[in-house]
Every structure is written in structure tokens, then in C-alpha cells.
From TrEMBL:
The keyword Isomerase does not apply. SMART domains: FA58C (SM00231), TyrKc (SM00219). It is an enzyme of class 2 (transferase). Belongs to the protein kinase superfamily. Tyr protein kinase family. Insulin receptor subfamily. It comes from Amphiprion ocellaris (Clown anemonefish). Its main location: membrane. This is Discoidin domain-containing receptor 2. Residues 23-177 form the F5/8 type C domain. SUPFAM superfamilies: Galactose-binding domain-like, Protein kinase-like (PK-like). Binds hydroxyproline-rich sequence motifs in fibrillar, glycosylated collagen, such as the GQOGVMGFO motif, where O stands for hydroxyproline. Interacts with SRC. Interacts (tyrosine phosphorylated) with SHC1. CDD domains: FA58C. Residues 548-840 form the Protein kinase domain. GO terms for biological process: ossification; positive regulation of neuron projection development; positive regulation of phosphatidylinositol 3-kinase/protein kinase B signal transduction; regulation of extracellular matrix disassembly.
């Protein structure tokens, strides 16, 4: 029900405030709705170049308004337009004097002053503080300037600007829409800086506020709370370009405002109104201590010179710890009449941040206004507009729609529950997407059947994803062939057979536990029974364990340890021609992964399965299993020892080679080393892809280097606590390397070679940032998941990893292709290998 309430509140958002993208109507200079009397000027050259001729695309008089004489750089001549009522002004268009080709005067630049009451004038500035706008380059073409920020005003002055003494003439059109809110100023405490360690500083001030700032209080103006720009869920991200983190929000810290625990704001309107509601767009990023307000209490004043009425309107919000989306909160104002309001917003957490506030009032006075055409004035009545009596049929219609929607949702949930049971009985492995989970949330999940996929409720659009089902099930078949550590016999079957094999896709796997054993990433391994794996499945030879002499510990995880050991007699044991690492006499150094003696039978089983798969892989860029000790406990697998450890550690301790690193003996790598590493990884992955083997956790932490800088891909999963922050834990059940995962892996649990390609792109990015930064380091895990939703929607709002400075542009293009939303647009490993190989100097 909370969700439903939220849905209503969020839906209201679409209607609750002015939208600068749609508020772009010509206000009537060209078509004459703005009367001559409402256009004035500081001066005019002749009668025939008076202000009434300043109409865009018109040629009356001498074709434009021209101020008297030459315009000097220090002049402040202006053309003034009275729009007749408060207007949300979004665009200004200008033209020069053409006069049917007899004129050639125009303004190359201009400024804008504005006034809501015709007395107090303010200067417009863009978001970076620049007051000058580019004007015309010739006498005939019109130039349109979007006002960022837009302004709420009734009177506008255009002031031509020049660097040299010159004659200027102007024709003008203004664009916008009526400011029905009627709000003429708000007062509030000044916004503050958020300076959390490890995050960028967020400046939560009201940077376009056009009133006064005194003693940390804003008063007498409007600003970002009325600019129509709604802040994003993550307050650090901004809708505007080239501005600072936190720009879209005005925010306050609880303890900075004394002990009062609230923010007091005052709102003044153009006239007395009957207020039905107030909509406050509020951030709710609770992971960073930001929440919508817990309650609000508003007082009313019928006239400016009157006392606040005693009885306030109070409203408690529904706090929400589950959905971090920013949202509109609608506060009912009970049709109270006032010209001024004073509201106290109470903190629910350490921070409170607003990006927009709008007001709805019931007694719209019809204006006999010359400025707006009727279709502009008539707002479409929405379900959530003020509940006027005149709107009763609309309200009834809306209620019926809501009830119908509810019935449909309930029906879908019931149908889905039924569907789940039937399908589960038939063969639960066949379903790729758990629609019940999808529609009704985790309450529906069977504990024996835990699916691991993340679908943020706000991205749940079953219709969209259902359309994708045919495509997805094809890929599911493909990935079932290679899903997890698929057995080689499975890779040879047809897709159809594969689906019936013993290696179900990850998304169809009963996740029993998800912690790696000693190295392997077991969240990817399907549950097999112990009986299903026998010694004969393992093709690696049994080595006498007493010949393994412990040297040092290389790593440790929940289920076991990795040791560096000397393996006595291993060369003889493996026989002639076996590709052995460097030997020291008749012993060699090896890495021994050992399962804890008290490991569960499940962990044992996974360990044996990992051995089975590894024993069949044979490639110079994949870690090689040399032998095993499985005839008695503890179970061990013996692999080559890689002297230079993992690639993440290796690169993070180095700088890019330069004369400086050379002179100061700083450990370094060259660009050509980095390219060589990339080629090797692509080669190893090409091999895995050729076996339809899906790795699922490709990252620099899972690549090892020997002393010659040969790279071998391994898989340590969560076995090394060192990298635990690279994994996201879903409610304590699954650990997922979300920063390396393709959108379809996160949202649909779909792992394929194409999702390995995505991870390869991230691995390349790590390599070329020398592993100095975690991918998307500015985003929390939750934000990474939100960003995944943006990748899915592909509306240009997804955040990509940036191009590392070391990275050649062509290589960054390759990375970007790895992160293509559509799978067919991603390169193959073969293609990646072919693209990368030529870059390596032989
Ligand atoms: N850590 C885990 N496995 C290793 C290996 N094979 N070589 C070096 N370090 C390791």
C-alpha cells in the first residue's frame, strides 16, 4: 500500500509543477497579443524606429526598435515589455533591423533585466553567473536563447551590449507560459555544504536566488526551488552541465540550524489565494543521511500586514527506508485562504534537500489577459490537481481508473502466484524471470528457490521485459550451455539439449550458499549433489600430499586457504613434456588451494566441481591445474604459482613509465605493457568463449601474473577478503561484483559470454587507470544498481566510466562498445583480440 501511495505521490509530480521543456509559447510580440502600449524603451532614434516596431519577423515602421544615437559600451539603453501578468519566461529570441534589405543594424550581445512588480529590477545571469547573452550575427536571422535559469517575471528589459561604439536595432519575441503558482518570493535558511569524507563536496545552496542573502537567510526572491528543474535521486548528480555536485538541491543539515529540528520557509504570493496543496520535491537518499521531511506545519496570513492565523495545517509524511528515489511530497492545504504562508519542515534524518516547491490554489481568477492564447491558459486537468467541485467528474473518472488499475494489479499477482506454482511443479529451471518476484516482491519467494537477481522496483516494467522474453530465452539457452562452470560435455550439445543438461543457468539455480570455497566464485555454481561428482570425473592426477612442503600463506577465505608450497618430485610425477613452471632442482613452487577440513558438504562439492572444470581447461592465459589431493582430507588443488600475484595489486603499486619513474627508481609499467596485458586477457577469454564457458567474474583481481608478466585468468571470487568491497551483498544472500556486471546480469540474472565482454571492458578500464580507482567510485552500490536501470532504459541518462587519461581514444571506443546496451552491439572476444593485438609491439 505504501508503494501505491508513493505511486500516487510520484504521479502527481508530473503535473505538480511547471515544466520548462514544455513552457515555450510565444508570448505575443510577433502576433500582436502584446499591445504597443506595453512595449516601451529608454529611447528611440526616430518615430519610425520606436519600441512598437520591435516585433520579431515584422517589418512595420523602419523595421525595428533602435535606441537613439550610437550605442556606447557604457550605455544601458533598453527595450521594455510588460507581459501583463506573472510569467515563467524560458526563451528570448532576437533579430536585427533588416527593413526589406535596407537595414543592417543588430545587437551582437545583450543583457536582460526583469521585475515582478515593475519597481524592483533584477539582472538575469546564467547558471555560471554570466549576464551577457549572444545576440545576432546579421540583420535577418533570429537567434534564440534558452534562459538557464528561466525567470518568473512580469516586466522584461532587453539591454543591448556592445564593445565598440555602434548603431544597434532589435526585434524581439519572448517565450514562456503563465506562472499560475502566483508565488513571488520565498524565504529560507541559506543552503549548506556537505563535506563527507570520501565523497565530493556537495554545495547545496540556492545559486540562482534573486532576492537578498543576509545573516545566512534568503529573502524576497525566487531561485532554484521554482526553476522547474527536479533534482535527481543522487543529489551529487546534476541535470545541468558544468555545475558542481549538489547543484540541483537546496539542502540543510539538521544540527546546523540550532536544536530546532526544522527548516522554516516563508512564501509570499501575488494575491490572496485558496490553497489546496503544496508539492515539495525532496531527496530521499537515506544511505547518505538524506530523507524527505517527517512532517510539516504551515501557518497562513490573509494579508501581508496581518498576524499569522493561530490554527496551522499539519501533515505527517510516510517515511520510506526502501526506495531511495527523490520524489514529490504533496501536502494538502485544506483550501485555506492566504496571501502568505509560513511552513516548518521537520527533519527525518541528518539532511533535508528540496529541489522544487509548487503551490496549487483552487480559485483561479480568470484573467482578461492579452498575453496568453486560450489553449495556453487552459491547463489540462489532471487526476491530482486541486479537488475543485467543478472537477468532480474528472475526480470520479480518476478514482475509477485507480480502482481498475488496482483490480488489474491484484489479478496479475494472483495469476502469477498460480503460474509460479504450476511452473515450479513442471520444471522450475525453465523460467528465466521470476515474474512473481517481479510483481509482488520478495514475499513470494520460496526459501528453497531463491533467485538472485536485482530489480529495483522503480525499473520493474514487466511489459517491457516480457517483450524481451523470446530474445532472453534464446540467450538463456546459450548461457545454459556455458553457464557457470559448465562442463565440457555440455558445451558440445545443441542449445535445446543444453537446457536439459545438469548445468542450469545461474538465474535458474537454487542458490544454496554463495560464498566462494577457497577460490572459486561459487555464486555462479549450480547446486549438485555430492553423489553426482565422483573421482572419475576429475582428470587431474592425485599427488602425494606429504610431498607438498609449506612455504607461506598466499590468501585466506571463509572456506579455505591458499598456500605457497614446494612440490617435491612434481616434474617427475607429471612426466616428460608437461608444461611446468620454473623448477628449482627437482622441486617446483606451486600454489595449493586447500579446503577447510570442517567445510560443509556443499562446499566440498563445489570444490570438486571446480577441480573438474579446471582440469579440462588448457590455455596459456588460463591458470593451470597441475594435480590434486582429493583421496583424503583436506581436499587440495595444486596450480601454477604466479610470482607477481594478482593484476590489481600489481598495477595499483605502479606508475606509468616516465623519465621521473626511471630517475627515482619508482616501480612502473609502460603503455605497451598495459596493452600486452589486455591482449593476453582477451586471448584467455577467447579460449573460454570458444568453450561456451562463462566466467562471470572477470576483473583484474582475478588475473594473475608470473615473473615474465604472463597473465593467467583465475577466479578467486570472495575467497580473498581483500576485495570484498568489490562485491555487493543482496540481503545477505548473494555476493555480486555489480561494478563489473552487465545490466542484464544485474537485472535479469543473465550471464553469457556477452556479459563477460562487458566485464572485460571494465577490466580494460581498470588496467588503464592502473587500478588506482574502483569503477564508479563516486557511486554507492545502490547507485550502481540504479545506474544499471538507466543502462536498461538507455535514455542517455546512464553514467559510463570515463576514458582514463592513459587510454588511447580508439581503446576507449572499444571499451564503450563492450558496454553497449544491446548484446549484438558488443564485440566478441575474438574481435577484441584481433582489435587489440596489433597495438602490441612485438
Ligand atoms: N594466490 C592464489 N593463487 C595464487 C597463485 N596461483 N599464484 C600466486 N598467488 C596466488
Amino acid at each position: 500500500m505504501h508503494l501505491f501511495l508513493l505511486l500516487i505521490l510520484q504521479t502527481t509530480a508530473a503535473f505538480g509543477q511547471i515544466d520548462p521543456a514544455h513552457c515555450r509559447y510565444a508570448l505575443g510580440m510577433e502576433d500582436g497579443r502584446i499591445k504597443d502600449d506595453d512595449i516601451t524603451a529608454s529611447s528611440q532614434w526616430y518615430e519610425t524606429t520606436g519600441p512598437q516596431y520591435a516585433r520579431l519577423n515584422r517589418e512595420e515602421g523602419d523595421g525595428a526598435w533602435c535606441p537613439e544615437g550610437q550605442l556606447e559600451p557604457s550605455d544601458s539603453q533598453y527595450l521594455q515589455v510588460d507581459l501583463g501578468r506573472l510569467t515563467f519566461l524560458t526563451i528570448v529570441g532576437t533579430q536585427g533591423r533588416y527593413a526589406r534589405s535596407s537595414g543592417n543594424e543588430f545587437a551582437r550581445a545583450y543583457r536582460l533585466n526583469y521585475s515582478r512588480d515593475g519597481l524592483l529590477w533584477k539582472s538575469w545571469r546564467n547558471r555560471l553567473g554570466n549576464p551577457v547573452m549572444e545576440g545576432n550575427k546579421n540583420a535577418y536571422a533570429s537567434v534564440i536563447n534558452d534562459l538557464h535559469p528561466p525567470i518568473v517575471t512580469r516586466h522584461v528589459r532587453l539591454i543591448p551590449v556592445t564593445k565598440l561604439s555602434t548603431t544597434v536595432c532589435m526585434r524581439v519575441e519572448l517565450y514562456g507560459c503563465p506562472w499560475d503558482d502566483g508565488l513571488i518570493s520565498y524565504a529560507a535558511p541559506e543552503g549548506q555544504l556537505m563535506m563527507p569524507p570520501g565523497y565530493p563536496i556537495a554545495s547545496l545552496n540556492d545559486s540562482t536566488y534573486d532576492g537578498t542573502r543576509e545573516r545566512r537567510r534568503l529573502s524576497g526572491g525566487l531561485g532554484q526551488l521554482t526553476d522547474g528543474v527536479i533534482g535527481l535521486d543522487d543529489f551529487l548528480l546534476t541535470r545541468q552541465y558544468h555545475v558542481w555536485p549538489g547543484y540541483d538541491y537546496l539542502g540543510w543539515r539538521n544540527d546546523s540550524l540550532g536544536t530546532q529540528g526544522f527548516v522554516e520557509m516563508e512564501f509570499v504570493f501575488d494575491r490572496q489565494r485558496n490553497f489546496t496543496s503544496m508539492k515539495v520535491h525532496s531527496n530521499n537518499m537515506f544511505s547518505r543521511g538524506v530523507k524527505i521531511f517527517s512532517s510539516v506545519s504551515c501557518q497562513f496570513k490573509p494579508h501581508l500586514i496581518a498576524n499569522w492565523e493561530a490554527e496551522p495545517v499539519a501533515f505527517k509524511t510516510v517515511l520510506d527506508d526502501r526506495n531511495p528515489s527523490a520524489r514529490y511530497v504533496t501536502v494538502p492545504l485544506n483550501r485555506r485562504a492566504a496571501k502568505s504562508l509560513r511552513c516548518r519542515f521537520y527533519f527525518a534524518d541528518v539532511w533535508m534537500m528540496f529541489s522544487e516547491i509548487s503551490f496549487q490554489s483552487g480559485n483561479e481568477i480568470k484573467h482578461n489577459n492579452h498575453t496568453f492564447q486560450s489553449e495556453q491558459v487552459n491547463k489540462t486537468t489532471s487526476c491530482f490537481d486541486s479537488p475543485d467541485v467543478s472537477n468532480t467528474p474528472v475526480l470520479i473518472g480518476c478514482l475509477v481508473t485507480i480502482i481498475l488499475l488496482l483490480v488489474i494489479i491484484i489479478f496479475l499477482i494472483l495469476w502469477c502466484q498460480y503460474d509460479c506454482k504450476v511452473l515450479e511443479k513442471k520444471d522450475r529451471r525453465y523460467r528465466l524471470i521470476d515474474w512473481c518476484y517481479f510483481l509482488s516482491g520478495p514475499a513470494n519467494t520460496d526459501p528453497h528457490y531463491e533467485r538472485v537477481f536485482l530489480l529495483d522496483p522503480q525499473y520493474q516494467n514487466p511489459a517491457v521485459l516480457r517483450n524481451k522474453l523470446p530474445e532472453l530465452s534464446q540467450s538463456a539457452e546459450a548461457s545454459a550451455c556455458g553457464g557457470g562452470y559448465a562442463e565440457p560435455d555440455v558445451t558440445q550439445c545443441t542449445p535445446h539439449q543444453c537446457f536439459h543438461s545438469n548445468a542450469p543457468h545461474y538465474a535458474e539455480t537454487d542458490i544454496v550458499r554463495l560464498q566462494g570455497v577457497t577460490g572459486s566464485n561459487m555464486y555462479a555454481v549450480p547446486a549438485l549433489t555430492v553423489d553426482s561428482l565422483t573421482r572419475k570425473d576429475i582428470s587431474a592426477a592425485e599427488f602425494p600430499r606429504q610431498q607438498l612442503i609449506f612455504r607461506e600463506k598466499l590468501g585466506e577465505g571463509q572456506f579455505g586457504e591458499v598456500h605457497l608450497c614446494e612440490a617435491e618430485g612434481l616434474p617427475e610425477f607429471l612426466g616428460e613434456g608437461s608444461p611446468l613452471p620454473d623448477r628449482d632442482g627437482h622441486s617446483v613452487l606451486v600454489a595449493v588451494k586447500q579446503l577447510r577440513a570442517d567445510a560443509t558438504s556443499q562446499a566440498r562439492n563445489d570444490f570438486l566441481k571446480e577441480i573438474k572444470i579446471m582440469s579440462r581447461l588448457n590455455d596459456p592465459n588460463i591458470i593451470r591445474l597441475l594435480c590434486v589431493c582429493v583421496s583424503s582430507d583436506p581436499l587440495c588443488m595444486v596450480t601454477e604459482y604466479m610470482e607477481n600475484g594478482d593484476l590489481n595489486m600489481f598495477l595499483s603499486q605502479r606508475e606509468i613509465e616516465s623519465t621521473l619513474t626511471y630517475a627515482n627508481n619508482i616501480p612502473s609499467v609502460s603503455l605497451s605493457d598495459l596493452l600486452h596485458m589486455s591482449v593476453q586477457i582477451s586471448s584467455g577469454m577467447k579460449y573460454l568463449a570458444s568453450l561456451n564457458f562463462v566466467h562471470r567474474d572477470l576483473a583484474t583481481r582475478n588475473c594473475l601474473l608470473d615473473r615474465r608478466l604472463t597473465i593467467k585468468i583465475a577466479d578467486f571470487g570472495m575467497s580473498r577478503n581483500l576485495y570484498s568491497s568489490d562485491y555487493y551483498r543482496i540481503q545477505g544472500r548473494a555476493v555480486l561484483p555489480i561494478r563489473w556486471m552487465a545490466w542484464e546480469s544485474i537485472l535479469l540474472g543473465k550471464f553469457t559470454t556477452a556479459s563477460d565482454v562487458w566485464a572485460f571492458g571494465v577490466t580494460l578500464w581498470e588496467i588503464f587507470t592502473l587500478c588506482k580507482e574502483q569503477p564508479y567510485s563516486l557511486l554507492s552500490d545502490e547507485q550502481v544498481i540504479e545506474n544499471t536501470g538507466e543502462f536498461f532504459r538507455n535514455q542517455g541518462r546512464q553514467i559510463f566510466l570515463y576514458g582514463p587519461p592513459l587510454c588511447p581514444p580508439s581503446l576507449f571506443e572499444l571499451m564503450m562498445r563492450c558496454w553497449s546496451r544491446d548484446i549484438p552491439d558488443r564485440p566478441t572476444f575474438e574481435g577484441l583480440y584481433q582489435a587489440l593485438r596489433p597495438h602490441v609491439s612485438q
